[in-house]
Design goal:
Order of helices and strands of chain B: HHHHHHHEHEEHHHHEHHH
Number of helices of chain A: 9
CATH class of chain B: Mainly Alpha
Number of strands of chain A: 12
CATH topology of the largest domain in chain A: Rossmann fold
Number of helices of chain B: 15
Radius of gyration of chain A: 19 Å
Order of helices and strands of chain A: EEEHEEHEHEEHHEHEHEEHH
CATH architecture of chain B: Orthogonal Bundle
CATH superfamily of the largest domain in chain A: P-loop containing nucleotide triphosphate hydrolases
Helix content of chain B: over 70%
CATH topology of chain B: ABC transporter involved in vitamin B12 uptake, BtuC
Largest sheet of chain A: 6 strands, mixed
Shape of chain B: globular
Number of domains of chain B: 1
Distance between the termini of chain A: 29 Å
Oligomer: heterodimer
Distance between the termini of chain B: 47 Å
Strand content of chain A: 25-35%
């Protein structure tokens, strides 16, 4: 795996808020076809790191490269343009619209009738079905119903489809996707994440739950005190080791 | 290969969870579910028809039905735009004053300045649209909540109308105004109803086939999500209020034509009557949901009630009481339906 070139590489990222050093010389590598989980306590720096990646915060120093090219990300819009898509915990969906209008919200396909711009609902519906099928691996049984009637897993699928809709998405960032879900929905969502990875979109997964992390992630990056405490391969590691990295060396030595 | 396996497993699992959710729920037809919000007013229309069948069959004479349609037509125009505004989690309390002000300016241009009637009508449409844009700007740029902004603007527009014309009544207008307001085609069908029904059809297209309607739904249901996808929320809200102002001006023109007269205190009850019709028709005041068909039903129900009270010789003011009762009845009916359809509340039954 380390033989491949990373899709995304962050080097020496440092970020301070006043006197608080939120990130200290942090590296991050994401390889093609992998799920990289980022774990750590509250305040360990994982969400600051992601906010730097998605342009919400500007790093004080450090670089971000996508496919070997330096990426200058100064805003959320910039991050979308270079191909970094994010699904936030609240999903940001419109409950009273069905799947296709949600997936294309803000970027509807148009057709001109008498010179007036109308939404091409038929094309949008076809394209949405196609995206759900090829990129997310889901066929919705009820695509025309408003999504407030969908299950948690289906809503997650719609949010992911919207995020990876564009053809040049290189990275999908998922912020705590399972935090608000019941056991059944969690299982579906984790399957969904694996499927999306299998369809060619590498994923950065931020999660508190080590069980969920170990059931999907290929590698796990542990953050502690604003630094990268370690990176382990999920298959060669276990919860105890990661937990040790999260809380610090004392426990690691003890265990 | 493993990814293909994933697909089928995933879709069947996601599909499964939906099937489970539906177990124990009453089977309902999809189209019925879509228009379930209209069921209440439709039942009331049916009930009212039964009552009229017993007490006053003249209610069903073609002439009377056409009078109902004519009375309803102004509110079809206003209701169309109000459905979109309310869907976008807005409300416009100034439409009566905007209708009166734009009609008044049109009337003064015709009567006092001798302007061509068609040009004067265009000026009225521009005045109405401008009032709507001002409402939108006050709401989005000055950050005054929709309700308070349009309440204050209502007083301002009403005041401007009074300043312009004081208490004078302007009357007797050239064609096409009288025809627009109270003419008939084929000897029976009211011209304003053609305007009103066209407005609702255009409204339906706007609602389902343009970004104006789509973004109104998005803003009304989840403003932050709409903003995050790059929708310019302020711009869309200004568009919605501009459309509302334009429709208010059309309503003012129709009113002027129907009465063949206009004064600065006209159209006072329009605002609440319109909002009542829209809400009775199932458009949700909390935003994100509405139907043009429901608004048509709501407008027709209120017009039927007014008409019934008149031909049953109730004192005119009873219609106010009736309108209030209908609003309460419809909203409590929706709340009942919502409780019944909510899967979490089902266990309480």
């Amino acid at each position: 795996m380390t033989m491949k070139t990373p899709v995304l590489q962050m080097k020496g990222v440092t970020k301070s808020f006043g006197g608080l050093r939120a990130l200290i010389d942090v590296d991050l590598e994401l390889y093609p076809d992998e799920i990289l989980a980022i774990v750590g306590d509250n305040g360990a720096g994982k969400s600051t790191l992601i906010k730097v990646l998605t342009g919400i915060y500007q790093a004080d120093s450090g670089t971000t490269e996508l496919n070997g090219q330096p990426a200058n990300i100064k805003s959320r819009q910039d991050s979308l343009e270079v191909g970094i898509a994010t699904v936030y915990q609240d999903l940001g969906l419109v409950d009273t619209l069905s799947a296709a209008p949600n997936i294309f919200l803000g970027d509807e396909p148009k057709k001109k009738i008498l010179g007036l711009p109308f939404i091409d609902n038929e094309k949008m519906r076809r394209d949405a079905e196609e995206i759900l099928h090829t990129k997310v691996g889901v066929a919705l049984p009820n695509p025309d119903e408003p999504i407030r009637d969908y299950s948690g897993g289906q809503r997650q699928a719609v949010a992911i489809a919207r995020a990876v809709r564009a053809n040049d998405i290189h990275v999908l960032v998922m912020d705590e996707p399972t935090a608000a879900l019941g056991p059944e929905e969690t299982k579906n969502t984790l399957e969904l994440i694996k499927t999306v990875r299998g369809r060619g979109t590498p994923i950065i997964l931020i999660s508190h739950n080590l069980d969920h992390v170990f059931s999907v992630a290929d590698r796990v990056q542990v953050m502690r005190g604003g630094m990268r405490a370690g990176v382990v391969e999920a298959a060669k590691s276990n919860k105890q080791e990661v937990l040790g990295l999260i809380v610090g060396s004392e426990l690691q030595e003890a265990s | 290969m493993p990814s293909a396996e994933n697909t089928s497993m995933m879709s069947s699992e996601v599909g499964q969870s939906v099937a489970n959710r539906n177990v124990g729920r009453k089977v309902e037809l999809p189209w019925l579910q879509r228009y379930i919000n209209v069921a209440g007013p439709l039942v009331m229309i049916f009930g009212l028809s039964l009552v009229m069948l017993i007490f006053e069959p003249r209610f069903f004479e073609i002439t009377n039905l056409m009078i109902i349609l004519q009375d309803a037509s102004i509110f079809m125009v206003l209701g169309m735009a109000m459905t979109l505004v309310v869907t976008g989690k807005g409300i416009d309390l100034s439409i009566g004053a905007v209708a009166a002000l734009s009609a008044l300016i049109m009337a003064m241009l015709i009567k006092d300045a001798g302007l061509n009637v068609y040009l004067a009508m265009i000026v009225a449409l521009l005045v109405g649209t401008a009032c709507g844009v001002v409402n939108g700007l006050v709401i989005t740029k000055l950050r005054v909540p929709d309700l308070m902004a349009t309440l204050a603007m209502d007083v301002i527009y009403r005041g401007l109308g009074l300043v312009l014309a004081a208490g004078t009544v302007l009357a007797r207008f050239p064609e096409p105004l009288p025809t627009l307001g109270r003419g008939h085609v084929f000897g029976f069908f009211p011209v304003p109803a053609i305007v009103g029904l066209s407005a609702l059809i255009i409204g339906y297209i706007l609602y389902h086939h343009t970004r104006l309607g789509r973004y109104a739904i998005a803003i009304g249901a989840n403003r932050e999500a709409a903003q995050q996808t790059g929708i310019n929320v302020d711009k869309q809200k200004i568009y919605l209020y501009a459309l509302m102002g334009l429709c208010a001006a059309i309503a003012g023109i129709l009113l002027t034509g129907r009465l063949n007269a206009i004064q600065s205190t006209a159209a006072v009850g329009f605002t609440l009557h319109t909002i009542a019709a829209v809400v009775v028709g199932g458009t949700v005041l909390f935003g994100g949901r509405g139907t043009m068909f429901g608004t048509l039903v709501g407008v027709l129900l209120l017009a039927m009630v007014t008409n019934s009270l008149v031909i049953l010789r109730f004192q005119f003011f009873w219609q106010l009481v009736a309108a209030g009762v209908i609003i309460i009845a419809s909203i409590s009916f929706y709340t009942y339906l919502q409780r019944r359809n909510n899967p979490d509340a089902r266990f309480d039954e």
